[in-house]
Design a protein that fits this description.
The protein is mainly α. The protein is built from 6 helices and no strands.
Length: 137
């Protein structure tokens, strides 16, 4: 029992640092996503726009999946930052790809159209799953 407790005491600071780094990457990635989308998700969500809520929720999951996988397989803080940045960039590319395929996506989201929002959210999550699998080796 003492050995287990000593392990927790020794590992807890490392856990906190790695968790903070990953959470920071998540927040920065989400902020970048919100900044680059041509519509204002937070305002739309505050106004009750379900389509915007779906797309932002999809992006949150899509970022969390590869970041969580990367955190589970990382060996140090540099590893977390490098692969975290890759994960964020790949998720932004996934958004851009769907936006190209669905030409009127911004207008549809602003109108509250749920169908394109679901397609975008699903594409983002699929990209997140694929990114996590690819990064895990």
């Amino acid at each position: 029992m003492l050995a287990a407790w000593n392990s927790v005491v020794a590992g807890f600071p490392v856990l906190l640092v790695q968790l903070a780094a990953t959470t920071g990457l998540f927040i920065v990635g989400l902020a970048i996503y919100i900044a680059v989308t041509p519509y204002r998700e937070l305002k739309l969500i505050r106004d009750g726009n379900v389509a915007a809520a779906i797309t932002l929720s999809g992006q949150m999951l899509a970022l969390a999946i590869p970041l969580g996988g990367m955190l589970a397989h990382s060996v140090n803080l540099a590893d977390i930052f490098l692969w975290g940045v890759v994960a964020v960039l790949l998720q932004l590319i996934a958004f851009a790809a769907v936006a190209i395929l669905l030409r009127d996506l911004p207008k549809a989201i602003e109108r509250g159209d749920i169908a394109p929002a679901l397609v975008l959210a699903t594409a983002q999550i699929v990209a997140g799953i694929f990114n996590a699998a690819a990064m895990s080796g």
